C-alpha cells in the first residue's frame, strides 16, 4: 500500500500556534517518509527541545525526544547501534547553534550518516521570545531590550568548514521545494544539515513569512557549483539574499562505513563476541 | 627458608619507564607463582616529576602496598632523598653511582652498579636502564632468569625481535653483575607451585569485564584515572568487535549511550568526577527514558581539576544524587580487580534488567593499582537482557506499550527497528506509549513505576557486605570500594579482635537487612577516602546507625595498612 503523509500522524494534534512555520516542516518530513513508503520501524527521528521538538508527539514510529541541544549525540548512538536505520534530527536554532555547537562540529567532522533539520525562526519560541543565536544584531526582545550585541551564527558555513558533506537550506513556506531538499538530505550518505527558515508568528515580528518570501531565492542547479566549499560559504555570507536549495555536497565515506567493528553488519545484529575475553587473559600472566 | 614477604620500590624521573619496570617485575613474580600488589604514584606530568612504582610480593595472598620498603631502586638522587626514610631494617638500596648520590648509613646497605655505563656499552638507550635495574633486583633475589625473559618477550612482542634481544642482553648483564658481585639478601625467590593467577589493574579488569558482558559500544572522553579503559578497549577492539569511540566531550558520550541503548546494544562510558559533572544532564535523560547503560566513574580528589593522578572516594554522594529529581540508579563499588571484573559484568545485567544506569565506582587506587586475580574466582556471568523482547516475539504485538505500568516496575523493552515495537523515548514525563503528558495520575504512575525498580532491586539483587575475620570480634571495620585492599592487608596482624565488613553494592541499600547487621557490631571503625564520611552518612540516613569511630583520609594518598593498624591499637588500647 502506498503511504500518504497523514499516515504518519499520531492521535495527538499539533499544539503549535496557528500559522506557525513548524507546520510546513512537519508536512515536508511526512512527505519524505511517505515518498520512501517507510513503516514506523524503518526510521528513527530524534527531536531536540523547543517548539520544533514538540513534533515528537505528532509523528509516529520510533522517536526519541531528547534534551535541548543533545539530539545529535543521541542520533549518533542510534546509528552506531544500527546503521541500517535512517536517522533524522529535528532541532531548533537555539537548540543547534546555541547548545549543540560542539556536537555539530563533531557530527560534521565524523560524517555520521544523520540528517539534521534545523528550524531557524531566529527567536526562542517555547521560552516566550528571547533573541536566538541566529537573530539579527540589534534585535530587541525580552532578554535584549537594548538590542542584541552579538552577530548571528552562520550555522551553514560552520557546518561546511567542519566537514559536513551535505549542506542545504529550505523555507517552511515552500513546501514542495522543502520536501525535495529534505529528501535529498535523507538520501545523502553522511552528515547532512538543512537549515529551514521557519517564521515564528507569535514572537518574531521581523522574520515573517513575507520577509523570507522577499529575501530568499532558489539556487539553480546549473548555476551554482555545489561541490565548492568556498562558493557555498560565500552564499551564506549574504544576509539579505538567502539561498534555498543544496549549497554544498560531497561524497565521503560515512563514519559507520569506516569503523572496523561494523564491517560484518550492524552492532545490534552481529554475533556475540563475549567469549573472546578468554584469549585476552593470556596478556595478564 | 624464611617466609617471603617484601616490598620492592623503583623511583625516577617521569619518562624513564618506572611503571613499565614495575610491571615487568610484578609479572615475573606472578609467573613464579608469588602474590603481588603493584602501586604507582606519579604527578600529572608527562616528563619530569617524580614517579615511583612499588611491588609488594609475598608467598601468601597480598592485598596492598605497605609503607616500608626492603629493596629501593634509585634512578636518581631525588628517589634516594625522598624515600631513604621508608626503609625496613637491612634494606638494600640499588643505585647507579654515576647518576645518584647516596649517603652511607647503618640503617641500610648500598649496592652500587654503574647501570648507565653498562647499558651504553651494550648499545642500549638510557630509557632501558630501568630493565637493567629490574634484572639486578631479580638476580639479587636469585629469581629464575627464564621467567623475566619470558615476560620481556611477551611485553615487547610488538616491538620486534631486536628490542627483545637487546633487553634480554641488558637483563643478562644484571645477572652477570650480581654473580660477579655477590650480596646476601634475606629473601630468596624459588618458583612456587602453580596457582593460576593473573595480574592486572582495576581498569584492565573493568575492561575485560565489559568484553565478557558483551558490551558493544564504549564512548568516552579521556580523563585520568579512567582514560586507560579507553585505551585498553580500543586496543582489543579488533578481537572484541566493540565500537570504541573517543568522543568530542562527555556530554556527547552519555547521550551517545542513550542512543545506543535505544538501538538495543550494551554500552558503557568511563570518566572521573569532573567528566561525570558534564554528564549529569544526559544521565537524567537515561533515567527517565529508562535506558540501560554502565558508567565507570574512577574517582580522584576534586572539586574541579583537583588532583588528577591521586586517589579518593569523595564522589559517592555525588553519583547517588546526580541529576535533578529522583530516579533509580545502582552503584557498585569493587574492592579489587577480581571484584571489578565480576561486578562490571553484573552491572550490565542489572542495567538491562532494571533498564536504568548502573555505576561501577572506582578510584585511582583501584583503577591503576596492580592486583593478582585467582582464575577460580573469576566468573563469567550469563548475559541477561531482562525484558528486551526478541524480534520473533515482538512481531505479534499489537498496541505495544514501552512504558507499561507493571507490578515490578519494569516495562517490556523494544529496540529501534523492531516491527510493532515503535515508541517515543521522551525526556518529558510521558504516558505508557512515551508521549508527553502533564496528567497528574499518569505522572504519578510513571514515577511510581520507575521507583518500584529500586525496591525490586533491593528485594532481588541487592547483595549485602562481605565479611572477613572473626564473627565475635571486638571491633568491626566498615569500608566500601577500593579500601578493601589495605584493610585486608592490615587485618593480617590484627588477630581475632577485629573483623571487617566490606560493601561492594553501595547504593541503594537494603535498610532492614543492614539495620540488623549493623546493630550486631560492638565497636566500629568506618574507614573512607573522603572528608565527611559519606558512606557513613548514607548508612545513618538509611538505618539510623552510626559508627563509634571514624578514619577518614582525603589527601589524595591511599590508606596504608600500617596506619589502619595504628588506629585500631589506639581504639582498642594496646
Automatic annotation (TrEMBL), chain A:
Pfam families, per database record: PFO_beta_C (PF12367), TPP_enzyme_C (PF02775)
Iron recorded as keyword: yes
Residue span(s) of domain Pyruvate ferredoxin oxidoreductase beta subunit C-terminal: 200-263
UniProt entry keywords in alphabetical sequence: Iron, Iron-sulfur, Magnesium, Metal-binding, Oxidoreductase, Pyruvate, Thiamine pyrophosphate
Domain Thiamine pyrophosphate enzyme TPP-binding residue range list: 55-196
Domain of life (superkingdom): Bacteria
Listed InterPro entries: 2-oxoacid:Fd_oxidoreductase (IPR051457), OFOB (IPR011896), PFO_beta_C (IPR032686), THDP-binding (IPR029061), TPP_enzyme_TPP-bd (IPR011766)
Cofactor(s) required, per the database record: thiamine diphosphate; [4Fe-4S] cluster; Mg(2+)
Magnesium is among the record's keywords: yes
GO molecular function, one term: iron-sulfur cluster binding
BP terms from Gene Ontology: cellular respiration
CDD domains hit by this protein: TPP_OGFOR
Annotated protein name in UniProt: Pyruvate ferredoxin/flavodoxin oxidoreductase, beta subunit
UniProtKB/TrEMBL annotation, chain B:
Record Pfam families: POR, POR_N
Domain Pyruvate/ketoisovalerate oxidoreductase catalytic: 15-176
Coiled coil: none
Assigned keywords, A-Z: Oxidoreductase
GO annotation, biological process: response to oxidative stress
SUPFAM superfamilies: Pyruvate-ferredoxin oxidoreductase, PFOR, domain III, Thiamin diphosphate-binding fold (THDP-binding), TK C-terminal domain-like
GO molecular function per UniProt: oxidoreductase activity, acting on the aldehyde or oxo group of donors
Pyruvate flavodoxin/ferredoxin oxidoreductase pyrimidine binding domain span: 209-442
Designated name of the protein: 2-oxoacid oxidoreductase, gamma-alpha subunit
Species whose genome carries this gene: candidate division CPR3 bacterium GW2011_GWF2_35_18
Amino acid at each position: 500500500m502506498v503511504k500518504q503523509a497523514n499516515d504518519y500522524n499520531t492521535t495527538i494534534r499539533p499544539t503549535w500556534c496557528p500559522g506557525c512555520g513548524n507546520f510546513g516542516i512537519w508536512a515536508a518530513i511526512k512527505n519524505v517518509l511517505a515518498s520512501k513508503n517507510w513503516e514506523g520501524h524503518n526510521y528513527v527521528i530524534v527531536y531536540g527541545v523547543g517548539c520544533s521538538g514538540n513534533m515528537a508527539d505528532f509523528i509516529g514510529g520510533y522517536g526519541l525526544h531528547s534534551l535541548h541541544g543533545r539530539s545529535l549525540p543521541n542520533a549518533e548512538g542510534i546509528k552506531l547501534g544500527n546503521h541500517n536505520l535512517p536517522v533524522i534530527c529535528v532541532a531548533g536554532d537555539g537548540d543547534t547553534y546555541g547548545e549543540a555547537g560542539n556536537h555539530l562540529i563533531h557530527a560534521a567532522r565524523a560524517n555520521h550518516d544523520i540528517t539534521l533539520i534545523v528550524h531557524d525562526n531566529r527567536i526562542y519560541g517555547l521560552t516566550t521570545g528571547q533573541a536566538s543565536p541566529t537573530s539579527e544584531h540589534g534585535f530587541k526582545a525580552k532578554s535584549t531590550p537594548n538590542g542584541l550585541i552579538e552577530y548571528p551564527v552562520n550555522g551553514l558555513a560552520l557546518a561546511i568548514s567542519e566537514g559536513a558533506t551535505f549542506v542545504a537550506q529550505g523555507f517552511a513556506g515552500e513546501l514542495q521545494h522543502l520536501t525535495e531538499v529534505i529528501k535529498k538530505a535523507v538520501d545523502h550518505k553522511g552528515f547532512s544539515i538543512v537549515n529551514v527558515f521557519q517564521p515564528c508568528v507569535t514572537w518574531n515580528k521581523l522574520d515573517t513569512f513575507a520577509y523570507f518570501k522577499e529575501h530568499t531565492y532558489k539556487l539553480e542547479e546549473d548555476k551554482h557549483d555545489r561541490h565548492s566549499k568556498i562558493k557555498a560559504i560565500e552564499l551564506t555570507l549574504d544576509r539579505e539574499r538567502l539561498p534555498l536549495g543544496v549549497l554544498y555536497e560531497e561524497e565521503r565515506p560515512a563514519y559507520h562505513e569506516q569503523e572496523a567493528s561494523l564491517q560484518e553488519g550492524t552492532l545490534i545484529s552481529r554475533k556475540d563476541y563475549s567469549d573472546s575475553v578468554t584469549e585476552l587473559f593470556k596478556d595478564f600472566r | 627458608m624464611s617466609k617471603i614477604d617484601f616490598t620492592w620500590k623503583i623511583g625516577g624521573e617521569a619518562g624513564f619507564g618506572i611503571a613499565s619496570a614495575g610491571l615487568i617485575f610484578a609479572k615475573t613474580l606472578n609467573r613464579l607463582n608469588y602474590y603481588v600488589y603493584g602501586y604507582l604514584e606519579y604527578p600529572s606530568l608527562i616528563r619530569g616529576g617524580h614517579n615511583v612504582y612499588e611491588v609488594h610480593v609475598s608467598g601468601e595472598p597480598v592485598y596492598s602496598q605497605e609503607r616500608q620498603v626492603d629493596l629501593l631502586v634509585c634512578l636518581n638522587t631525588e628517589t634516594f632523598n625522598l624515600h631513604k626514610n621508608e626503609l625496613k631494617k637491612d634494606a638494600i638500596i640499588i643505585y647507579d653511582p654515576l647518576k645518584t648520590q647516596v649517603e652511607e648509613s647503618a640503617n641500610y646497605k648500598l649496592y652500587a652498579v654503574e647501570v648507565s655505563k653498562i647499558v651504553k656499552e651494550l648499545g642500549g638507550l638510557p630509557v632501558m636502564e630501568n630493565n637493567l635495574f629490574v634484572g639486578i633486583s631479580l638476580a639479587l633475589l636469585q629469581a629464575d632468569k627464564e621467567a623475566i625473559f619470558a615476560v620481556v618477550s611477551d611485553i615487547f612482542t610488538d616491538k620486534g625481535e631486536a628490542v627483545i634481544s637487546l633487553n634480554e642482553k641488558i637483563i643478562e648483564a644484571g645477572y652477570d653483575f650480581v654473580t660477579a658481585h655477590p650480596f646476601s639478601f634475606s629473601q630468596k625467590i624459588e618458583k612456587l607451585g602453580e596457582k593460576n593467577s593473573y595480574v592486572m589493574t582495576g581498569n584492565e579488569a573493568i575492561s575485560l569485564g565489559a568484553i565478557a558482558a558483551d558490551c558493544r559500544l564504549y564512548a568516552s572522553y579521556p580523563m585520568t584515572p579512567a582514560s586507560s579503559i579507553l585505551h585498553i578497549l580500543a586496543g582489543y577492539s579488533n578481537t572484541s568487535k566493540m565500537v570504541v569511540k573517543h568522543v568530542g566531550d562527555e556530554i556527547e558520550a552519555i547521550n551517545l549511550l542513550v542512543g545506543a541503548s535505544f538501538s538495543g546494544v550494551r554500552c558503557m562510558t568511563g570518566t572521573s568526577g569532573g567528566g561525570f559533572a558534564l554528564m549529569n544532564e544526559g544521565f537524567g535523560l537515561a533515567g527517565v527514558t529508562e535506558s540501560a547503560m554502565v558508567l565507570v566513574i574512577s574517582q580522584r580528589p576534586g572539586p574541579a581539576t583537583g588532583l588528577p593522578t591521586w586517589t579518593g572516594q569523595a564522589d559517592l554522594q555525588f553519583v547517588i544524587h546526580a541529576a535533578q529529581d529522583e530516579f533509580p540508579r545502582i552503584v557498585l563499588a569493587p574492592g579489587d580487580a577480581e571484584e571489578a571484573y565480576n561486578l562490571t559484568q553484573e552491572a550490565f545485567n542489572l542495567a538491562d534488567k532494571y533498564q536504568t544506569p548502573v555505576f561501577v565506582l572506582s578510584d585511582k587506587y583501584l583503577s591503576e593499582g596492580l592486583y593478582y586475580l585467582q582464575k577460580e574466582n573469576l566468573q563469567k556471568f550469563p548475559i541477561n537482557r531482562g525484558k528486551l523482547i526478541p524480534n520473533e516475539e515482538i512481531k505479534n504485538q499489537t498496541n505495544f506499550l514501552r512504558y507499561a505500568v507493571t507490578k515490578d516496575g519494569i516495562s517490556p523493552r523494544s529496540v529501534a527497528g523492531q516491527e510493532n515495537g515503535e515508541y517515543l523515548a521522551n525526556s518529558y514525563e510521558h504516558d505508557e506509549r512515551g508521549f508527553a503528558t502533564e496528567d497528574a495520575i499518569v505522572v504519578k504512575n510513571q514515577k511510581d513505576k520507575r521507583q518500584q525498580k529500586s525496591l525490586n532491586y533491593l528485594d532481588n539483587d541487592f547483595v549485602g557486605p562481605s565479611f572477613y575475620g572473626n564473627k565475635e570480634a571486638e571491633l568491626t571495620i566498615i569500608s566500601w570500594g577500593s579500601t578493601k585492599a589495605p584493610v585486608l592487608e592490615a587485618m593480617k596482624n590484627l588477630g581475632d579482635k577485629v573483623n571487617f565488613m566490606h560493601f561492594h553494592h553501595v547504593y541503594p541499600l537494603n535498610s532492614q537487612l543492614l539495620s540488623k547487621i549493623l546493630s550486631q557490631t560492638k565497636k566500629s571503625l568506618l574507614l573512607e577516602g573522603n572528608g565527611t564520611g559519606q558512606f557513613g552518612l548514607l548508612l545513618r540516613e538509611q538505618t539510623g546507625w552510626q559508627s563509634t569511630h571514624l578514619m577518614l583520609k582525603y589527601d589524595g594518598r591511599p590508606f596504608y595498612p600500617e596506619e589502619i593498624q595504628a588506629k585500631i591499637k589506639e581504639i582498642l588500647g594496646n
